[in-house]
Amino acid sequence: AAFEALLNWKGIEVADELYTICKESPSSNYFDPALTTYVKLVSNPAFTGENRLLSLRKAMEIAKTDAQKIAILQQIEKTGTFLGMLYAGEFLDQKPVQQAAANAVMNIALGNKEYMGANVRALLNKVMEVLDNPDAGYQKEAIKKHLAEMPQGEGFVSLFNGKDLTGWKGLVQNPIARAKMKPGQLAKEQAKADEVMRKGWSVEDGMLIFNGKGDNLCTEKQYGDFEMYVDWMLDPAGPEADAGIYLRGTPQVQIWDTSRVNVGAQVGSGGLYNNQMNESKPTKVADNKLGEWNSFYIKMVGDRVTVVLNGEKVVDDVILENYWDRKLPIFPVEQIELQAHGSKVYYRNIYVKEFERKEPFKLSAEEEKEGFKVLFDGTNMHEWTGNTVDYTLEDGCISMIPSKSYGGNLYTKDEYGNFVYRFEFQLTPGANNGVGIRTPMEGDAAYVGMEIQILDCEHPIYKDITPLQHHGSVYGIIPAKAEHHSAFKPAGEWNYEEIVANGDNIKVTVNGVVIMEGNIREATKNGTADHKGHPGLFNKKGHIGFLGHGSPVKFRNIRIKELK
Fold first, then answer.
1. What pTM did the predictor assign?
2. Cβ atoms within 10 Å, residue 21
3. Cα separation of 369 and 354, whole Å?
4. Could you read off the pLDDT of 376-421 as tens digits, one per residue?
5. Cβ-contact 433, 548 below 8 angstroms
6. Which pLDDT value is given to residue 404?
7. Cα distance between the two ends of the chain
8. Is the confidence at residue 220, as pLDDT, over 70?
9. Which long-range contacts (CB under 8 A, 24 or more apart) does 275-278 make?
């Protein structure tokens, strides 16, 4: 009667009980109905595909009959996950369940065009060999078409072969200390570190296991921009469970036991634990209970990190700070590490896909000689502060992607008085932005400082504006010249701009054409042109800012030279 009650139970909370019954009485009449009900409960589409896959893998580990395995593979197909596709691929050689595995691989791959790479191609070619059903002819044609359209490239590469520690090494100090070592010294330290690593890390049953003694496990290869998958599980029996994933040699995406409230672990795993300026906590708790597997998807582009835990986004495009020296941006290229923290941890399914990396912008020899410094080189936003949410890093640019907060400004961390400021910008049709100069970070920069207008002023929506509002004008104070019409390239193309602020003299050049030149003291000796108060007009110095007005705009290759 108790067992019947469990089988008829509607909620997920009974799943663990049914699983325990299967494990405790594998030879009884209870096994099949318990496993069947467990599979049905954990396959509920209300759960994320990632969590369904983790539970279905548990079911597969104890499944005994082909019918049970086929039922599990049919549910794995519905998860639509990349790791689900790879897992189903492991069953393509098992004759009795082969068709279910082939369907799962085929339907997940064809339903997700972004799943690409060598392993996906190999699996689909194998599926074509084994497909055996009345529709196999059509299906093979669909797969061939999909393969022909799939972008080339290596895709996700496994960092862990499931057998040994190939591709991994021990930890030698931190990235700054390593960079200072001579090759001979580094090799000697590496040999010592590898010895320590082999005592702490081992491979068992396709899992990478840390026994709680020793130091971090590091990839031999270094990575720039990438996305990765990694499954992890903390040992429930061990001492204070705690681990993490170091990105480019830097701590870390946090992993811990959420019951450890004395150290603040109730916020959940996945946060950028060592951040001080930028958000360090995850946005929600998405951990599975201690002793269960969890699945991370981590994406790192430039200095930005996104983390999805068990299918729930917990970190969204947040800047990762350089823990080893906070005055420096994050390293552009470094190793990935699995953190060793004195407690037993298990890892599996470690895959990395690298993104093509933009070369960092460098000054010309001439600009270097003149004393320019780079404020944005396309790899990090370390020199900037303010709204780093709507202003993000994309394709080597600072990209304004307006959200609900509608604009919000991005400022240089440092203040500047007299300078030559050079940058490139790209507008969308009708876009409106601005460059604040000598401005504080609070208030409207056009008045508490000075605003050099950035505007797609050729757009019909601006047909009634005055020259005081045109691109390049000192907003409300000095109008842009008539020549500005010929200077611009159309929206969607890159323009090159230089702003010179030297005492009271301001000059703006776009694509080699001077579109505004004037003296703010001269221009205001009979009052301001727009008849408004500009209390910050004569500030000696202040921040430089991009002033958002809710339009998508991009900036790149930003540099500055300070004038005496």
1. 0.91
2. 20
3. 35
4. 999 999 999 998 888 999 889 999 888 755 557 999 999 999 999 9
5. yes
6. 55
7. 89
8. yes
9. 275/318, 275/319, 275/320, 275/321, 276/321, 276/326, 277/319, 277/321, 277/385, 278/318, 278/319, 278/320, 278/321, 278/388
Q: Is the distance from CB of 530 to CB of 468 less than 8 angstroms?
A: yes
pLDDT, tens digit, 9 for 90 and up, residues 447-496: 999 999 998 888 888 888 888 888 999 999 999 987 766 788 888 999 99
Q: Residue 404 phi/psi, 5° resolution?
A: -65, -25
CA dihedral 302, 307, 312, 314 (to 10 degrees): -100
Strands 345-354 and 373-376: unpaired
Tens-digit pLDDT profile for residues 81-137: 999 999 999 999 999 999 999 999 999 999 999 999 999 999 999 999 999 999 999
Lowest mean pLDDT: which of 99-103, 150-154, 164-168, 229-233? 150-154
Q: Positive or negative CA dihedral for 235, 159, 86, 358?
A: positive
Amino acid at 337: E
Q: Cα separation of 376 and 399, whole Å?
A: 12
* Percent of the chain residues past pLDDT 90, beyond the cut: 81
Cβ-contact 148, 124 below 8 angstroms: no
- The vertex-534 CA angle with 532 and 539, nearest 5°, equals 170
- The sign of the dihedral angle between the CA atoms of 91, 95, 97, 100 is positive
CA proximity to 550, closest of 446, 435, 470, 431 = 431
Cβ–Cβ < 8 Å for 454, 427: yes
Q: Tokens at residue 230, please?
A: 């990694």
* SS3 label, residue 513: strand
Who contacts 114 (Cβ-Cβ below 8 Å, separation ≥6)?
A: none
- Write a three-state SS string for 336-405: EEECCCCCCEEEEEEEEEECCCCCCCCCCHHHHHHCCEEEECCCCCCCEEECCCCEEEECCEEEECCCCC
Residue that has been written with the tokens 């969890």 in this structure: 294
The set of long-range contacts for 81-84, using a CB threshold of 8 Å and a minimum separation of 24, is: 81/49, 81/50, 81/53, 81/108, 82/108, 82/112, 82/115, 82/156, 82/229, 82/351, 83/50, 83/53, 83/229, 83/231, 83/295, 83/349, 83/351, 84/49, 84/53, 84/108
In this prediction, residue 290 has a pLDDT band, given cuts at 50, 70 and 90, of very high
Beta bridge partners of 437: 450
d(CA 399, CA 556): 9
